[in-house]
Specification:
Chain lengths: 478, 90, 495
């Protein structure tokens, strides 16, 4: 039975409003995060069995005027990802804001659900202007989450993030305006018909790609990300690093595979993006290895991991014959990174909660004192490196295979080298959680919910590799 | 005539971009991104004339209106944050 | 039914691991009970599968995991050889570990990863293609790392780091080869006598075929500790005794050797390996490893290190047996896979007992410990004799087959390698026994009670007994020898 996709957006929005009422906050947060998660799960299951792609027009107004929602395998998969992470981060936040940052806990839920609504809307939208609005919703709620702790560092990071994201949005809008001026439509499905055989869109593409690169922190524009993601509270960092940077990359893939026709200039663009992605992997990993604090390390690792998505740009251009495999690889890379990074940030929150400081060398010996948090760090670290059975491994296997099959040896070797570098920055976390130096032994308990949610995210990111055939069925179906 | 608006918006975009890069203070940056926004909105509205019909196309107007709303709210948040930062400093 | 059994073989220990991760540290009894039940259950399933496979059944579980590759589990005689070895020794080690770690901290974490390592070993054994093999091969790395660094001391952390460096580099090489294999050939299924599509491709592209073979070989050689890649093994000795027993006798090193068996016999096929002379340079390398390991072992003061070098050399016995052409050497190799496991695990458990009771870690501290712990010393002596290859033990059987195999292959030099290594092993093992038995103890204070807790005493005695039993059983009896014969007949009957 098809669902009304509007609920996926309306439900979190309603929750965000209700959470402003102090007496209802906790119940709202719990009930609505569970409901939203179940709804995402349902729509994911629908993509496995029902008729896809599913188009729905809000208020019955069809394109080009109306706002359309579209559910297909890829968006269903990402809805599921958002749902899982949203749910577990919500669980974590219950405990977290009870024991720490009580003041911030009052506003957190509003922006949390607002962000969730934005993410769901993004994955469902199929209209470029609609996507612009949703991108703004995402950025605005994300930047409040960055500023949440209220100290100078966080505010500054948030302001820098805000300026860059307004800049990026304006670029994006410029590109949209150019497309509209030339083709008169903004719906992606209509655009793909009109673009065929024309060249004018390449001018519009330039500002759009720059905007997406800024928003997903591709290398020369990455500088806003580490301070923004590392200076805020753990649940917010987890959301930002795992979910908020993903939509722009998703949009890029969508444009590339479904909207843009084959054009020589796109090939050059893909090579440039690929080089930037390669640099992002190398530079991001290098800085991640050099960091002395957990959160900065994780933030730089996000820069590196996002690089993979752009590194493979030439494959998106050349690989129509492997379209399915490409979509699957991309989806899995996003999924595994999102889950693993969320788990890592939540665990880093546990570390800071126990040790009262964010410092790798002061990291508590979790392996001895809090095994569940250690398991979380262990499994999610393995996923970031891309070790089997994790979903990250399957993604890397597919990307590597495709790049060899299509003759992109450079991309393949950077990918392999990138996982080696990833093991270099994950290793210190493992080592420190094992080190049994007495001063590092803090065994004051962590609230159970905080440990469990981090553990489940890490465990899911790792063990989902074995059931990828099930997760990816929707993408295979179209 | 439409070319003139395009040209004007181009100037706005370029100038504000330059200013965005060189500006050090948050307020100046905020102003520059707002000018950038104005440039983009001008461009978008100007494209409304780019149609075969006699009346201008209404869609760009609607879209730009949305864009302005978003830009205003972003500006509001930025101003709030800057004020907060200044209060902290004092 | 059988498919369910296969799946339960894999999943039982995985679920145990998941279950234990939620169990509180203090729930010792429940944890031990669950562990023991799972280990016994596994043994039961293995017995059932052995019986079914012997009657000619072949079972598989296969589904397409990613666009290019299948997840493929299969039960063939060779898989069962490794499965039964692992699950039996696992039961032994589990019992031993429960005793050994009594009262130690972090047992919960230990058993979580311990069971995860069992899962991966089962997966390695049952893997029906290279892709599945790789999945579990890497999972094994991941699950044994926490075991190596279990104690969390600086030394352990360093050893763990080195372990990771070697295995992750090896894993990357493995992954690269695997992807190349899939892109060029598109299939990595194990077939008796070699994968036909791979064979066709290798005959067309001999250079790539050769490179891929060496790539796979060295990726596995990391775990099997072949000469330049052995550093991690000797350092991993900082781990607790049950872990070393496990690493050295069953899981990690054997996974490497087992992978090489699959590579040579079932991916490339013996014929291809011989006709392209892929095996020769590797045979020289492994022969050198045998001598190097035995030689280094003689000079090790630390007892566990001595055994580590011995493991290195014995692993290369197996690999050399695999590489040498001919049926007899194959039999020798497969037999040694089992026999070395049984003997080496005995030695490690005995050393663990010495260390636990009297704090003996070094050779010079051994004086007189033999008289105080007679049963442990008997077990140690029997297993040492076995490793040396004295008649009446399983070690003798292996050696006989390996030497006959070398002769049949016309590679007489290999016989001398085995001889020299045997002599060297007398020099590194016998002094331990003599010193333990006849050395004069400095302090005569004998600790009261049983020499160690029965949980730690019975396992080495059982394996020592098996060392003798399998050595003197007639060929008709049910024994590893018979099973190996069955495998080899099937494999060589293939063409």
């Amino acid at each position: 039975m098809p669902i009304d996709l509007g609920y996926l957006v309306a439900l979190p929005l309603l929750a965000s409003l209700l959470s402003l009422i102090p007496s209802l906050r906790v119940y709202t947060a719990f009930i609505f995060s569970l409901l939203s998660f179940l709804l995402s799960l349902y729509s994911f299951i629908y993509t496995l069995m029902g008729d896809i792609p599913l188009y729905q027009w809000i208020g019955g107004w069809v394109a080009p005027l109306g706002i359309g929602f579209r559910l297909d395998g890829l968006s269903g998969f990402f809805l599921l990802m958002t749902g899982i992470i949203g749910f577990f981060v919500a669980l974590y936040s219950f405990s977290f804001f009870k024991v720490e940052y009580q003041r911030q806990g009052k506003v957190f839920w509003f922006f949390f659900f607002f962000l969730w609504a934005g993410l769901n809307a993004f994955f469902l939208s199929e209209d470029l202007f609609n996507l612009y609005v949703v991108l703004e919703v995402l950025s605005l709620s994300a930047l409040v989450l960055v500023a949440l702790p209220g100290h100078r560092k966080a505010i500054k990071a948030s302001l820098n993030y805000l300026f860059l994201s307004i800049l990026a949005s304006m670029f994006y809008l410029l590109g949209v305006a150019m497309l509209y001026a030339n083709y008169g439509v903004l719906s992606m499905s209509l655009l793909s018909e009109k673009l065929a055989g024309t060249h004018a869109f390449t001018y519009a593409l330039f500002p759009i790609i720059v905007a997406l690169a800024i928003k997903s922190a591709l290398l020369p524009f990455h500088f806003w990300l580490p301070p923004a993601h590392s200076s805020t509270v753990a649940p917010a960092s987890a959301l930002l690093s795992s979910l908020v940077v993903k939509p722009p990359a998703y949009l890029m893939l969508r444009l590339w595979l479904e909207v843009l026709p084959k054009d020589k200039s796109l090939e050059y663009l893909s090579i440039v993006l690929s080089l930037m992605g390669a640099l992002a992997i190398l530079v991001g990993s290098y800085y991640a290895i050099r960091q002395k604090t957990i959160k900065m390390l994780l933030a730089y690792s996000t820069v590196a991991q996002m690089g993979y998505l752009f590194l493979m740009a030439p494959l998106y251009y050349h690989g129509e014959s492997f379209r399915e495999a490409l979509l699957q690889a991309f989806a899995l890379q996003v999924f595994s990174h999102a889950l693993a990074k969320a788990s890592m940030f939540l665990s880093s929150g546990n570390a800071i909660y126990v040790a009262r400081r964010d410092d790798l060398s002061y990291m508590p010996g979790f392996a001895h004192s809090h095994p569940l948090t250690f398991f979380a760090l262990f499994f999610s670290g393995a996923t970031l490196i891309g070790l089997p059975l994790s979903a990250g491994f399957v993604a890397k296997f597919l990307f590597l295979g495709l790049s060899i099959r299509l003759g992109f040896i450079f991309q393949g070797s950077i990918m392999l080298f990138g996982s080696l570098l990833a093991s270099l920055y994950v290793y210190p976390i493992w080592r420190e959680s094992f080190s049994s130096h007495p001063t590092k032994f803090y065994d004051n308990p962590i609230p159970q919910l905080m440990e469990l949610s981090a553990f489940f995210l890490g465990f899911l990111s790792f063990s989902s590799g074995i059931v990828t055939f099930l997760l990816l069925q929707g993408i295979v179906r179209g | 005539m439409i070319g003139f608006y395009y040209f004007l918006s181009l100037i706005l975009v370029v100038v504000s971009l330059y200013y965005f890069i060189v500006a050090r203070s948050y307020v100046k940056r905020l102003i520059s991104v707002n000018i950038l926004g104005s440039g983009v909105f001008l461009f978008f509205v100007a494209t409304a004339k780019n149609t075969t019909m006699e009346n201008p196309d209404p869609v760009p107007h609607a879209l730009v209106l949305t864009g302005i709303v978003v830009a205003v709210s972003a500006t509001a948040i930025a101003v709030a944050l800057i004020l907060y930062l200044n209060k902290e400093e004092r | 039914m059988e498919r369910l059994a296969v799946l339960s073989l894999l999943l039982s220990s995985f679920f145990v691991s998941l279950f234990i991760s939620f169990l509180k540290e203090e729930r010792v009894f429940l944890r031990s009970l669950v562990n023991a039940i799972a280990a016994f259950y596994k043994l039961f399933v293995v017995a059932y599968l052995l019986w079914s496979v012997y009657r000619g059944g072949v079972f598989e579980i296969r589904y397409s995991m990613v666009p290019f590759a299948d997840f493929y589990l299969t039960v063939d005689p060779l898989a069962l050889l490794f499965v039964s070895l692992s699950s039996f020794l696992w039961l032994i080690t589990t019992i031993y570990a429960i005793g050994y770690l009594e009262g130690a901290p972090n047992r919960r974490r230990f058993f979580v990863f311990f069971n995860l390592a069992v899962t991966s070993t089962m997966g390695i054994a049952l893997a029906g293609n290279m892709f599945t093999f790789f999945l579990f091969y890497e999972l094994l790395t991941l699950s044994t790392y926490p075991l190596v660094v279990h104690r969390g001391t600086q030394k352990a952390l360093r050893a763990g780091g080195i372990y990771l460096v070697y295995t992750i580099l090896g894993g990357s090489l493995f992954m690269l080869c695997l992807v190349l294999l899939y892109m060029f050939v598109g299939d990595s299924t194990f077939h008796t006598g070699g994968n036909p599509s791979l064979r066709a491709w290798v005959l067309e592209n001999p250079l790539w075929g050769k490179l891929l073979f060496y790539g796979f070989f060295f990726a596995m050689a990391v775990k099997a500790a072949v000469f330049p890649l052995h550093q991690w093994l000797t350092r991993a000795m900082v781990a607790p005794a049950p872990v070393s027993a496990l690493l050295h006798a069953v899981a990690v090193v054997k996974a490497g050797a087992f992978g090489i068996i699959r590579l040579v016999y079932e991916l490339y096929g013996v014929e291809l390996v011989q006709s392209m002379e892929l095996w020769q340079p590797l045979a020289y390398l492994t022969a050198f490893t045998i001598l190097f390991g035995s030689f280094m072992a003689v000079f090790q003061e630390e007892l566990k290190k001595r055994l580590a070098y011995s493991t290195m050399s014995h692993l290369s016995y197996i690999i050399l047996g695999i590489l040498l052409p001919g049926q007899l050497s194959t039999m020798g190799a497969l037999l040694h896979l089992v026999n070395h496991g049984i003997m080496k695990i005995t030695l490690f458990m005995c050393l663990g007992n010495y260390a636990e009771k009297y704090g003996v870690h070094k050779f010079k501290e051994l004086d007189g410990v033999g008289k105080k712990m007679p049963l442990t010393t008997i077990a140690f002596t029997v297993a040492s004799l076995g490793l040396i290859g004295t008649p009446m033990t399983v070690g003798y059987l292996t050696k006989k087959y390996l030497e006959a195999g070398a002769k049949a292959a016309g590679e007489e030099w290999a016989i001398y390698v085995f001889y020299i290594s045997s002599i060297l092993s007398v020099f590194y093992l016998m002094p331990i026994v003599f010193k333990a038995l006849f050395g004069r103890s400095r302090e005569d204070k004998e600790k009261k009670g049983l020499e160690v807790s029965p949980l730690m005493l019975i396992p080495p005695l059982i394996t020592a007994f098996l060392t003798l039993l399998f050595g003197i059983l007639p060929p008709e009896a049910i024994s590893p020898l018979k099973w190996v014969q069955y495998i080899v007949n099937k494999a060589y009957g293939g063409y």
